[in-house]
Amino acid sequence: MKKIRIGHKSTQRQQRWFVGLMVILFFPCFFYLKLDLNQFKDGLHQIPHIANMMMQMSFDQFPDLMDGLLTSLIIAFLTVVISVVISFFLAFVIATNTAPVPLLAKIIRAIIVIIRTIPVTIWVLLAVASIGFGSMAGVLGLIFPTVAFLTRVFSDQIDEAGKDIIEAVKAVGGGWWNLVFNGVTPQLMTAFLASIAFNFEITVAETVILGIVGAGGIGVLLQEYISFYDFKPLTLGILIVFITLFLLEMTTNLIRLRLSGRGHK
Amino acid sequence: MKPMLQINSLKKQYGSSTVALNGIDLEVHPNEFIAVIGPSGAGKSTLLRCINRLIDPTEGSISFQGQEIVGAGKKQLRQIRSQIGMIFQHYNLVDRLSVLENVLHGRLGQMSAFNGVFSRYSEADKLAAIALLEKLGLEEQIYKRADELSGGQKQRVGICRALAQKPSLILADEPIASLDPNSSRIVMDSLHANCIEQGIACLVNLHQVDVAKRYATRIVGIKSGKVVFDGKPEELTDRMTQHIYEGKEHQMFQQGVPVEQAV
Prior knowledge:
The structure holds two protein chains of two kinds. By secondary structure, chain A is mostly helical. Chain A has a single domain, classed as MetI-like fold. Chain A contains eleven helices and no strands. The longest helix of chain A is centred in the C-terminal third of the chain and has 35 residues. In chain B, strands 6-7-8-3-9-10 form a six-stranded mixed sheet, with helices on both faces. Chain B has a four-stranded antiparallel sheet with strand order 2-1-4-5, with helices on one face. Chain B folds into two domains: 180 residues, Rossmann fold, CATH 3.40.50.300; 75 residues, no CATH class. In chain B, a hairpin with a 3-residue loop joins strand 1 and strand 2. The two termini of chain B are 31 Å apart. Chain B is α/β, with parallel strands linked by helices. The chains are: A mainly alpha, B alpha/beta. Chains A and B meet through helix 8 and helix 9 of A and helix 2, strand 6 and helix 4 of B.
């Protein structure tokens, strides 16, 4: 007896093509990289050793690590504050509802796309290369992608939710400054604050990682420990980073929940 | 009497094919309370928004108190807009500001950008705004946040904002379309009473014919971007109403109440 077909033909064909293509591509890719299973096997017995070393956490470097963490947090904070100020104005310049000069808006939007396609790490490396290692390079390198991100988010929020308010302010004869400060900003303040909190969280995580390429903060210490196979303080460092990011995420989630919950007064 | 607002062969086209307004001629005299009726999509909203140039018309001219609105410069346009109040279907209040601040927004058009941005309203404006709110029965709500109010209360705040402009013309775009019958009555009563009392001409977009007949001194019927009726409420026959709403008859009732019973 012939079985009854239940699937959607073209969808199934699409999926089969997709899986088939992945399988076909996998083997040449695997051999191209010359992935060596023996290297993996040899390395396996090192794992208990390293794990053992990492278990012996030492608190000798605790003050240094805390100092590095504080630096990281400050870099992130400064980056976000400066970026918020810049992107707040840029957002109103590029949002379709409020753009005073449409051509300028287009140009800025194109620049933002370019900035966003270049990874954050590259920006920080560029900053490090041009002004040298340290916190200044971190702030400078992070500002570009952060401004691009925030401008994009703010302008989307303005386009999405600002329309009614903009009509109202225009109708009473208000000008551009009134649109921005009397209408849209108070209306979208909670949305803006939630985005800023979220962005701060991302930026802290980025700062920690980017310390490894020389942008200052706790990442620089982690990088040193790794290159000297100094696993004892490394464990503590990773733990500190983990706890910080975890707490930060909890707090920003709480803040965003509060803000979106429309808590009165 | 000279009209305060004169619209001549006003056209608005979206893209290359959609014609929202197809040659509108309309005169508005002081003290008139005009209801603009018509099915949704007829162009009522576009007409109102063309008058204060929230939408730029494609062709035609609009003259308001002797000043040409179409083609007015930025500064002149702001000055004209500040003399025309507008009331919206969705109230368009700033949710996170107090009721009083929302009403004071009506003053923004007549203030410097600096004073506006820093909310430096004059004490006289504040007193006038509070008096308006009291008059419309919102004295308990003055310092509440706008999003704490009911729909009917929000719309009365919208009316206060428009009145705070001390306008000579008010445009109301479907002011009661989102409200229940009771709130609708309160809102229409407040709007009507204040316009009559202060000699403000008013153009109200409505899709409920019964409401239009109850308040208007004149009714303008719009169908497919054209004025098909312009006359006194008594002159609006059932046949004419049916012609205006041809194919969309269900829209001429409010909350399912037929015209005859509601009037």
